[in-house]
Design goal:
Belongs to the G-protein coupled receptor 1 family. Keywords: Cell membrane, G-protein coupled receptor, Membrane, Olfaction, Receptor, Sensory transduction, Transducer, Transmembrane, Transmembrane helix. InterPro entries: GPCR_Rhodpsn (IPR000276), GPCR_Rhodpsn_7TM (IPR017452), Olfact_rcpt (IPR000725), Olfactory_Receptors (IPR050427). It is found in: Cell membrane; Membrane. It is a multi-pass membrane protein. By secondary structure, the chain is an all-alpha fold. It has one domain: Rhodopsin 7-helix transmembrane proteins (Rhopdopsin 7-helix transmembrane proteins, Up-down Bundle), CATH 1.20.1070. It is built from 11 helices and 3 strands. The chain has a 3-stranded mixed beta sheet with strand order 2-1-3. The protein starts with 9 loop residues before the first strand and ends in an 8-residue tail after the last helix. 36% of the residues are buried.
Length: 309
C-alpha cells in the first residue's frame, strides 16, 4: 500500500454551504430529519421485537432493514449536523476511513436486505404452500449472516482502494462526507484504475441488485393473476412498498457510482436524498401502507396485550 507516502493527516469538509445563515438552516432541517429517522426506525424495531403478530420472515427482514437504516444514517448525519455549527470543519484521515467503511457497510447491508425481502415475497406469493418450510428461521438467519459478510467484503474493498491512494495535498473535500469518489480528486496519482474498480464494485452492486429486484417483482406481479382479489390487493400493497423503497434508494446510488470520476453541482443533494432522506422515508412507507404493522403499533401504544390477535 502507498499509505506511508501520505502527507495529508486530515481533510477539510466544505459541507453543503459556507453561508452562516444557511448553515443554521441546514442544522435545523437535518437535525429534525435525523431525529425523525431514529424515531421511525426504532419504533419499527421495537414493534417487531415485541409483537407476536409480526413473527413472519417478512418482518424479520424488515427489522434488519430498519436497523441498517438507523446505522446508515448515523454514520453520516450526526457529524454533518455538528459540522453545520462550526466555522471550519476538518476530519482526520483515520476518521475519514472509518466513515467510508461504516457508510458503505450499512449501505450495502441495506441493499442485500432489500434483495432478501424480494426473495421472501417471491416465495410467499409464488410458493405459498412451502413458504414456512423454505423461509424457516434457520434459513433467514443464514441469509442475514451472508448479507453481513458480503457487506463487510464490499466496505473492506472500499477501504483498500482508499488506502492505495497517495495524498500529498490539497486536502479540501467539496462534500459533507468522506467517500472514495470525492477523494479521487485529491489523490496525487493516476486514479483511472481505482475509478474503474469503484464502478465495478459499488456501481455493479447497485446496478445488478436493481435489475435483480425489478426482475423478481415483475415475476411476482405476473404470478398475482392467479390469486383472489383480496390476496392480490394485500400482495400488491406489500410489493408496491418495496418497489418504492428500491427506486428511492437505488436511483441516486446508481447516478453517483456508475459514472466516471466527475462531479456535478447536484451531487451533494442527490447524496443527501439516499443517505438522509431514504432512511427517513422507509419507516413511513412501511407503516402507512402496512395494516399489520399499524395494528401492532396501536396495541403497543394502547398498552393492550400483544397476544390479542
Amino acid at each position: 500500500m502507498m499509505l506511508l507516502n501520505n502527507n495529508v493527516t486530515e481533510f477539510i469538509l466544505l459541507g453543503l454551504t459556507q453561508d452562516p445563515v444557511r448553515k443554521k438552516i441546514v442544522f435545523a432541517i437535518f437535525l429534525l430529519f435525523y431525529l425523525g429517522t431514529l424515531l421511525g426506525n426504532l419504533l419499527i424495531i421495537i414493534t417487531i421485537k415485541t409483537s407476536r403478530a409480526l413473527g413472519s420472515p417478512m418482518y424479520f427482514f424488515l427489522f434488519y432493514l430498519s436497523f441498517s437504516d438507523t446505522c446508515f444514517s448515523t454514520s453520516i448525519a450526526p457529524r454533518m449536523i455538528v459540522d453545520s455549527l462550526l466555522k471550519n470543519t476538518t476530519i482526520s484521515f483515520n476518521e475519514c476511513i472509518i466513515q467510508i467503511f461504516s457508510f458503505h457497510f450499512f449501505g450495502c447491508l441495506e441493499i442485500f436486505i432489500l434483495i432478501l425481502m424480494a426473495v421472501d415475497r417471491y416465495v410467499a406469493i409464488c410458493k405459498p404452500l412451502h413458504y414456512m418450510a423454505i423461509m424457516s428461521r434457520r434459513v433467514c438467519n443464514t441469509l442475514v449472516v451472508i448479507a453481513w459478510v458480503g457487506s463487510c467484503v464490499h466496505s473492506s474493498t472500499q477501504i483498500f482502494l482508499t488506502l492505495s491512494l497517495p495524498f500529498c495535498g490539497p486536502n479540501v473535500i467539496d462534500h459533507y462526507l468522506c467517500d472514495l469518489e470525492p477523494l479521487l480528486k485529491l489523490a496525487c496519482a493516476d486514479t483511472y484504475m481505482v475509478n474503474v474498480l469503484l464502478v465495478s464494485n459499488s456501481g455493479a452492486i447497485c446496478t445488478v441488485s436493481l435489475v435483480m429486484l425489478m426482475f423478481s417483482y415483475v415475476i411476482i406481479l405476473h404470478s398475482l393473476r392467479n390469486h383472489s382479489a383480496e390476496g392480490r390487493k394485500k400482495a400488491l400493497s406489500t410489493c408496491i412498498s418495496h418497489i418504492i423503497v428500491v427506486i428511492l434508494f437505488f436511483g441516486p446510488c446508481i447516478f453517483i457510482y456508475t459514472r466516471p470520476a466527475t462531479t456535478f453541482p447536484m451531487d451533494k443533494m442527490i447524496t443527501i436524498f439516499y443517505t438522509i432522506g431514504t432512511p427517513l422515508l422507509n419507516p413511513l412507507i412501511y407503516t402507512l401502507r402496512n395494516a399489520e404493522v399499524k395494528n401492532a403499533m396501536k396495541k403497543i401504544w394502547s398498552k393492550k396485550p400483544i397476544s390479542e390477535d
